[in-house]
Design brief:
The protein is an alpha+beta fold. Helices cover 30% and strands 28% of the residues. Strands 2-12-9-11-10-13 form a six-stranded mixed beta barrel.
């Protein structure tokens, strides 16, 4: 059985109290309102993709849950009844005891590329270097540290698109020869991740309230002479592999479901865990709105660190990118675990 991280283990046992009865009472009093997710059956693909992995990693408690899930009809009320029958919701708290944390969004961008470098396509994606030892930083790679080693898998036409591909972790590339290829995370250089939005705030270019992924992109495109200097502040560098364009796959190794897959910190939340997520401010057609939804922890990310920290996968293309780019919400979540665990 997979060893639970200490933070999550404390959550699932809800801390010892006198007489041993208080944790169950606490769980009942904070039970989330599943009716708030009006289309909760949309989460079934994410649940089913993860349930077998949970049964394998977390032990026998998940096996009857997954068996019941396999026969569940795609009906909202049936899913709510299933959650009430089989699972219990346990609130996640941060190290400081707080319940709230930061939730952002990500997506699979559409990119343009070529199998060979040209005057237009001159920004390479690299496969992981072989061998051992320290790998170069982003700035060193941009200065040519990996050139001549045959690691290029393809070339893109836009350095800003490439930078955000590093943040998203996967993408779809429309190739100059008319083909489409998927590119996905294959490794990193091991240097620390730095959120470049912090630098823009320090430089007086933005405030914490105006900062978003969309703001960073707009700033880079408006300031091309300084964009690479900003990118290089993030020493972390991502390596990729090409694969058939069959959709996005997260760190759990299963397909991601738009609006239902969540990237988390696996040191606190085991991948595959169902979660009830409440977000205070999510981009909507008429501005910003709250969101309460069933999701599943199926991915990770360099910037996703901490017990209460999430990154919602919104899907593919410009519309998903607009939502992900504008999303920066306070929120909280509950771990859903078998009642007999």
């Amino acid at each position: 059985m997979m060893r639970l991280a200490p933070t999550l283990f404390a959550l699932l046992t809800v801390a010892a109290c006198a007489g041993g009865e208080r944790p169950a009472e606490m769980i009942r009093t904070i039970h989330p309102d599943y009716a708030a997710d009006r289309h909760i059956a949309e989460a079934l693909p994410a649940l089913r993709n993860s349930c077998g992995i949970m049964a394998e990693r977390q032990g026998a408690a998940w096996r009857p849950v997954c068996a019941a899930l396999a026969d569940l009809p795609e009906d909202d009320e049936a899913v709510r009844a299933f959650l009430d029958r089989w699972l219990v919701a346990v609130p996640v708290t941060a190290a400081d005891g707080g319940r709230d944390g930061l939730f952002t969004g990500y997506y699979v961008p559409g990119l343009r590329g070529s199998w060979q470098p040209t005057a237009t396509y001159r920004y390479p994606l690299y496969a992981p270097p072989g061998g051992s030892g320290a790998l170069p930083t982003r700035a060193e790679i941009e200065d040519g540290a990996l050139e001549g080693r045959g690691l290029e898998i393809l070339w893109l036409d836009n350095p800003v698109d490439r930078f955000f591909l590093h943040i998203q972790g996967s993408g779809r590339v429309e190739m100059a020869d008319g083909s489409t290829v998927g590119v996905g995370f294959a490794g990193r250089n091991g240097h620390p991740y730095f959120a470049v939005g912090r630098a823009l705030i320090d430089w007086g270019e933005a405030t914490p309230e105006t900062m978003s992924m969309a703001f960073i992109r707009d700033w880079m495109e408006a300031n091309p002479a300084h964009a690479q200097d900003l990118m290089n502040l993030n020493q972390s560098y991502i390596f990729f592999e090409a694969h058939p364009d069959t959709g996005a796959t997260g760190a759990l190794g299963v397909p991601l479901t738009p609006g239902r897959s969540l990237a988390v910190d696996p040191d606190h939340i085991p991948l595959g865990t169902p979660l009830w997520v409440e977000l205070d401010s999510v981009p909507a057609a008429n501005g910003m709105g709250s969101l309460s939804r069933l999701m599943v922890a199926q991915d990770t990310g360099s910037a996703i660190q901490g017990a209460v920290r999430g990154d919602v996968f919104w899907g593919y293309g410009k519309e998903a990118g607009a939502i992900a780019g504008a999303m920066r919400s306070e929120g909280r979540y509950w771990v859903l675990r078998p009642k007999n665990q």
